[in-house]
Amino acid sequence: MGLFDLFTEEIAIDLGTANTLIIHKGKVVIDEPSFIAIDTKTEKTIAVGTQAKLMQGKTHENIKVIRPLQDGVIADFKASEQMIKEFIRKIPKIRGGFLQPALKMVVCIPSGITEVEKRAVIDSCQKVNAKEVKLIYEPMAAAIGVGIDVQKPEGNMIIDIGGGTTEIAVISLGNIVCDNSVKIAGDIFNNDIKFYLREQHNLNIGERTAEKIKIEVGSVIEDLDIDIEDIPVQGRDLVTGKPREIMIGYKEIAKALNKSIERIEDAVMQTLSITPPELAADIYKTGIYLAGGGSLLRGLNERISKKTELPVFIAEDPLRAVVRGTGKALQHIDSYNFLISSK
Description:
The chain is α+β, with helices and mostly antiparallel strands. 36% of the residues lie in helices and 29% in strands.
């Protein structure tokens, strides 16, 4: 071990459209929304993560709340760099040290990413003192996080529904055999809910309210086995302009999300249709695994199972499946040959 290695810290990052999670020394040390609030006059960071998200839709002209990632990729390079830097500063073992350590990172990226978008992730990491950056595709990270042995000669299908993209992949022998990345995920679900309330109830709601509705009464089928109470929703009446409250239940949300879920189902069927027959035979036995925040939508596993006629399993703690897999990849950074080098 060289002297330089003594001042190197290893971290795994799930840089998501909705949330950023960081693992350091085997533990999730950061789990916060991918938001940053910036003073427009000084361009200084005011807040990141949860604090910045709380400001969304409530700022004045001197404060700008930014989501640096859109559709799973970096949309605002400068803001993403600042956000990553602030999150890393929050890590207890790195924060407040006499010397700023060099970083060895594994970062997950969508499978449909371009070379330019890939470079933007690497550059953002290198700007925050990363001496080594390796990338892992999200479906691969999700599969590892679910507990699949990705190195085995066996076909497994994973569906990772995040904030910006839904990643569908068939994995065997440490590689993605066939995949599909669609830009329909949590953010689109929120927009679907906002559109439905505008059209059906003449009520204008914000992004945070739509997210709250999705979490509390989000469903993709209208006949759930469990009874979920309707919730009160406040917004602005489009006719009178006054604040107004209505009650919303899961059946209406299932209607609101139906078209988007159909498009995800179509993408799953398309991926299955190009899967080599031996791997398809494996998937018939192993089933399909769901990960990501979108997999928490009530009834989604049942709906995909009905469409594909295959068993569908939701990962344990699906919100953290990708970062768990990225963390395991960090532990095997030298032996996992499917990791993408930044060099």
